[in-house]
Amino acid sequence: MPEGHSVHRIARQFDRNFVGRRVSASSPQGRFAEGASLLDGREALAARAVGKQMFLEFEDDLWLRVHLGLYGAWDFSGEILVDPTIASANGRMGQTNQRGTALDEPVLDDAGENSLTSIGAPRRARVHVRMSEQTTGLAEEGAEWPPPVVGQVRLRLLTELTCADLRGPTACQLQTPDEVQATIDKLGPDPLVDDPTAGEERFTAVVRRKPTAIGLLLMDQNVVSGIGNVYRAELLFRARLNPHIPGRDVPEETVRGLWRDWSRLLTIGVETGQMMTMDDLSPDRWRAAMASRDDRHWVYHRAGLPCRVCGTAIVLEEMGARKLYWCPSCQA
Q: Needs which cofactor (predicted)?
């Protein structure tokens, strides 16, 4: 499932390429035909992300809410104005160096994604881009316009230059402004949306009164927005925190540290497009991590491998119907 950084990046893509433009809408699959007919011909006014949910505002107080869930993805094609803070040299929804510096040569990871780029001026690129948990895509010069529909497309949004196809979302619905606010009110704080101090206070207060295991609380979108399976495992390890400790038993300063660390990692994720959770890497190790997902994390997806800190085998268990990776020694 896409975690918070991916959804914020998608919202930025919509902000640059759809907001301020009149949009044609259709539902090739037919499952959102009525909603698409209401959106068709309206101007897109705003795009925002809160946690794992994205909201697109259209004329006449009409909002589109999308939750990608486990299988959803946005495919972008056409002439795309790329946000320089998330752009990559080959036109994919790209990345910058964690330290914000430009590197001369692109690095393709094991999924073929270019993960290092300049942070120069916005540019237009005729590309095809998939926006989901793992961002991939190939540049397509001179492609047919509008592009042919491929597969089960729930919703197609189209301007004169840019096309966005939505596939397999958990939620795709129209909402009124009051309904949007009610949806957001149910979500926990998002470091990129809420006031940082207020968000920290709200998160800390909720966690500190809950008897639920902290490993479950971090995945509860009513407690904190945007954290998924990867970030949960990595945040807990970075805090050296046992996932089974009840939230109310976690020291207050540790809870506050989790919020601040999530704020930092989320920002890095939006800037780089990668869930990079290892710190203070040398340039060579940084490039290696961008080239291989296996080198970006402390514990995630490392079951049975030695802990990078103590050498103990990383444990894999199920928590909240999701896989949890942790070190039984460092996180004892």
A: Zn(2+)
Active site residue 251: no
pLDDT above 90: percentage of residues in the chain: 67
**Residue 210 catalytic?**
no
Burial class (CB in 10 A: 0-12, 13-18, 19+), 99: exposed
Strand order in the sheet with 44-50: 44-50, 53-58, 62-67, 171-175
* Domains of the chain, each with CATH number or no CATH: 4-183 (3.20.190.10), 188-326 (1.10.8.50)
Is-catalytic flag, 323?
no
pLDDT tens digits, one per residue of 198-226: 999 999 999 999 999 999 999 999 999 99
Question: How distant, in Å, are the alpha carbons of 4, 116, 236, 327 from that of 68?
Answer: 11, 26, 25, 30
Helices (H), 88-162: none
Say which of 22, 264, 308, 322 is annotated catalytic: 322
Task: Choose the catalytic residue: 3, 57, 234, 271.
Answer: 3
Of the residues 48, 52, 65, 154, only one is catalytic, namely 52
User: CA dist 329 to 167, 237, 256, 313, 318, Å?
Assistant: 42, 10, 23, 9, 18
